[in-house]
Design a protein that fits this description.
By secondary structure, the chain is mostly helical. The protein has six helices and no strands.
Length: 145
């Protein structure tokens, strides 16, 4: 089966919300695998880990958030303005925090926590807002466009 045929089947069986949740869950699981070791190291020792697979995982997480932010910024996005603004703010925080992680100066824990909270929102679970604040996707679809 070709990739395009597989993609069509997925699009027919999964909503955009389910697809977003599945992708975010996979990315977050990859971040968690690195978190245990990375967060326990001093900043000077983190750079060697960043040169490996973790850099690719961080890049993929950034790509997810950038795509989400582009969708949220579209005029046709149907999410409530407050939720859109909150998610855009969280996306901007993810960008800043990722730069700090790449510089060896921040832990992965906060990225994992934010992703898991958004993942729960995509699953329709009601949870407290992420600790970085400004909104969460609790029970509302993130893909509004």
């Amino acid at each position: 089966m070709s990739f395009s045929a597989y993609k069509r089947i997925l699009e027919q069986t999964e909503s955009p919300r389910q697809i977003e949740r599945r992708i975010l869950a996979r990315i977050t699981a990859n971040l968690e695998q690195h978190q245990i070791y990375f967060d326990g190291l001093p900043p000077t020792d983190r750079l060697a880990i960043l040169a490996g697979e973790l850099n690719a995982v961080l890049w993929e997480n950034q790509q997810f958030w950038q795509a989400l932010m582009l969708d949220l910024a579209e005029p046709g996005n149907q999410l409530p303005p407050e939720l859109r603004a909150g998610l855009l703010s969280i996306g901007a925080w993810v960008e800043r925090h990722t730069r700090a992680v790449v510089g060896g100066m921040a832990n992965l824990e906060a990225l994992v926590e934010v992703n898991r909270n958004i993942e729960r929102g995509l699953a329709g679970e009601i949870r407290p807002a992420p600790s970085v604040g400004q909104g969460a996707a609790q029970g509302q679809e993130l893909h509004g466009g």
